[in-house]
């Protein structure tokens, strides 16, 4: 891959940018494309460059103050081939081709290994500079838009922190069909046109196999030996530090190389205060690189876990992800019997809409998806776990994976919010959900929750008769003409623990659902009076007294009390019609139970 190298008047003023075919960007002193802040002769945006067909096209921008020189001539527009360069101010820009070639690995004259323990006793002689450079690394990692930018920033930081290194690189060891090869993910040299980079595969493999920093020296006491084993001109040592922790940096290693005339660093004894500075520097360089590798690995690992969690958020509710973050997944997700509250919500009239929109099923699907999205949003917003989609219905539950004291209250708040959103949409003809209505069933009790399924397919959900009861309650909302119904356990909690300023409840009737033998007292969940002024608390008290009279068989008194309810209240019609159909007289053996003849 080709790259453009910018070299300023000082050796440390160097930047490299990898070039991709068809890529266009702006270079200048302060641009998003490629900023070179060291040269005042560069305008903020100076030139547009584009790499195509092995050539670099350069075009001076109208706002550029100074000329661009190519072979000594000022040019506003030109093309550059690999090996050629142009100049702006005091900065030389050179186009180079593929930089990395198969290494020629020479046998080192000496090898040293460095474990983290062996470097603990070594103190930095200039800790402020080292720590200042190291403090940039998290930002370099987090702010990089892609891996190419990360690699470039990391290598530049290594050269800044290790002045004696002539070359710094991030390398990766690949194993393909038993063959090992080293890839330079990115490298840089202090000179704009140094020799081609030849990383020692022997050194990289040794460091990664050992899991420790390894130093190779190709120089010796004589100039002849140095020339024989030098990897490249002015490079006679290199060390490699593996990046080991986690899966975020597989096979990665940091590679530094340079030249020295001192042999003090070759000894494996602990450093002394009278050590040669250059010898101490190299040990310090290894320790600094170990810190860079550890920081790089840790931050990348955190980023990878965050990305995984973000992807899992589509499959697991926040409550489940929170439990997984601090517990063993097998234990957290294991199915277990527990106390839960279940919400079952279904769209009204979906089958009829399917027939009417059979010529635009995709449009209908989008509308249904939006409706289901309202349900899941409020389930998750109230800390619930989304259990399942069943066609045009959604099911959520509370109380797992962690038990909560207010799971019933949260389930009720979710139900009220869902109902409110659909009622609001119904008052807006242009809203895609305007002709949708919902019914909601709420139940509380024992059930099995967790990872449930077969060996081929599993999902996090809840299982047991409680779920069927929630579904049956949702079906009964059609018969009783109310959007939300609760079982007695849920309703009793609302009456005793939820303020009327948050939610209200109304017992409706004691019924035996179609196809079931056990009767249940069903109750309606209502918003607080300010949000639903059609039914005041006084109205609800009159209905409760009417229900007591109805259950006791005093139907004339019940009818009289029901007349106090507003005409808009359709729930009272259920008792009124039942009383009228039976000529206001309880049947023989009256036990207060109404038998439902349909599911709803």
Furnish the topology, listing elements before pairings.
Layout: E1 3-7, E2 14-18, E3 24-28, E4 34-35, E5 47-52, E6 55-60, E7 68-70, E8 73-75, E9 77-80, E10 85-88, E11 91-96, E12 110-114, H1 116-119, H2 127-134, H3 137-143, H4 147-161, E13 165-176, E14 179-189, H5 201-210, E15 213-217, H6 223-229, E16 237-242, E17 252-258, H7 277-312, H8 318-326, H9 329-333, E18 336-347, H10 350-356, H11 361-381, E19 385-390, E20 393-398, H12 407-426, E21 438-453, E22 458-463, H13 465-480, E23 484-486, H14 488-497, E24 504-512, E25 520-526, H15 537-552, H16 555-562, H17 571-581, E26 593-595
Parallel strand pairs: 3-4, 21-23, 24-26
Antiparallel strand pairs: 1-2, 1-11, 3-5, 5-6, 6-9, 7-8, 10-11, 12-15, 13-14, 13-17, 15-16, 16-17, 18-20, 18-21, 19-20, 21-22, 23-25, 24-25
């Amino acid at each position: 891959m080709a790259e453009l190298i910018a070299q300023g008047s000082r050796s440390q003023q160097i930047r490299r940018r990898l070039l991709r075919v068809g890529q266009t960007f702006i270079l200048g002193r302060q641009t998003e494309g490629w900023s070179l802040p060291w040269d005042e002769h560069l305008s903020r945006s100076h030139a547009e460059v584009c790499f195509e067909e092995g050539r670099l096209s350069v075009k001076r921008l109208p706002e550029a103050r100074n000329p661009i020189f190519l072979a000594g001539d000022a040019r506003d527009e030109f093309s550059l081939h690999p090996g050629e360069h142009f100049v702006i101010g005091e900065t030389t820009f050179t186009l180079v081709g593929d930089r990395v070639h198969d290494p020629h690995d020479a046998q080192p004259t000496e090898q040293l290994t460095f474990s983290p323990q062996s470097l603990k006793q070594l103190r930095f002689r200039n800790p402020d500079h080292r720590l200042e450079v190291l403090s940039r690394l998290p930002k370099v990692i987090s702010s990089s838009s892609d891996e190419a930018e990360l690699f470039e920033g990391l290598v530049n930081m290594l050269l800044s922190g290790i002045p004696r290194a002539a070359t710094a690189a991030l390398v990766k060891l690949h194993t393909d069909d038993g063959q090992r090869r080293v890839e330079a993910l990115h490298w840089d040299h202090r000179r704009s046109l140094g020799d081609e980079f030849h990383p020692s595969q022997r050194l990289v493999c040794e460091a990664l196999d050992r899991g420790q920093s390894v130093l190779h020296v190709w120089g010796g006491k004589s100039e002849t030996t140095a020339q024989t084993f030098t990897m490249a001109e002015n490079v006679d040592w290199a060390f490699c530090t593996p990046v080991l922790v986690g899966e975020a940096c597989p096979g990665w290693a940091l590679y530094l190389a340079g030249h020295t005339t001192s042999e003090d660093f070759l000894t494996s004894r602990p450093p002394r205060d009278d050590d040669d500075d250059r010898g101490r520097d190299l040990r310090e360089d290894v320790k600094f690189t170990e810190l860079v590798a550890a920081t790089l690995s840790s931050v990348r690992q955190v980023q990878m876990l965050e990305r995984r969690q973000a992807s899992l958020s589509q499959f697991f509710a926040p409550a489940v992800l929170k439990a997984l973050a601090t517990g063993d997944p097998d234990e957290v997700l294991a199915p277990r019997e527990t106390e839960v509250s279940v919400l079952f919500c279904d769209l009204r009239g979906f089958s009829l809409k399917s027939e009417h929109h059979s010529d635009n099923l995709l449009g209908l699907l989008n509308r249904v998806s939006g409706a289901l999205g309202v349900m899941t949003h409020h389930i998750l917003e109230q800390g619930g776990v989304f259990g399942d989609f069943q066609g045009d219905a959604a099911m959520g539950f509370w109380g797992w994976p962690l038990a909560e004291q207010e799971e019933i209250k949260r389930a009720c708040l979710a139900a009220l919010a869902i109902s409110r959103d659909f009622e609001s949409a119904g008052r807006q003809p242009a809203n895609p959900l305007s002709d949708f209505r919902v019914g909601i069933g709420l139940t509380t009790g024992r059930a099995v929750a967790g990872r449930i399924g077969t060996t081929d397919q599993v999902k996090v959900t809840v299982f047991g008769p409680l779920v069927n009861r929630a579904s049956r309650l949702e079906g009964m909302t059609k018969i009783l003409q109310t959007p939300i119904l609760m079982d007695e356990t849920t309703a009793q909690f609302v009456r005793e623990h939820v303020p009327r300023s948050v939610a209200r409840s109304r017992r409706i009737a004691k019924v035996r659902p179609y196809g079931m033998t056990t009767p249940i007292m069903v109750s309606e969940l209502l918003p607080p009076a300010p949000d639903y002024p059609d039914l005041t608390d006084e109205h609800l008290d009159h209905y409760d007294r009417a229900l007591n009279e109805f259950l006791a068989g005093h139907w004339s008194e019940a009818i009289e009390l029901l007349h106090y309810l507003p005409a808009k209240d359709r729930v009272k019609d259920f008792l009124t019609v039942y009383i009228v159909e039976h000529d206001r007289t309880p049947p023989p053996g009256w036990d207060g139970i109404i038998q439902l003849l349909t599911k709803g």
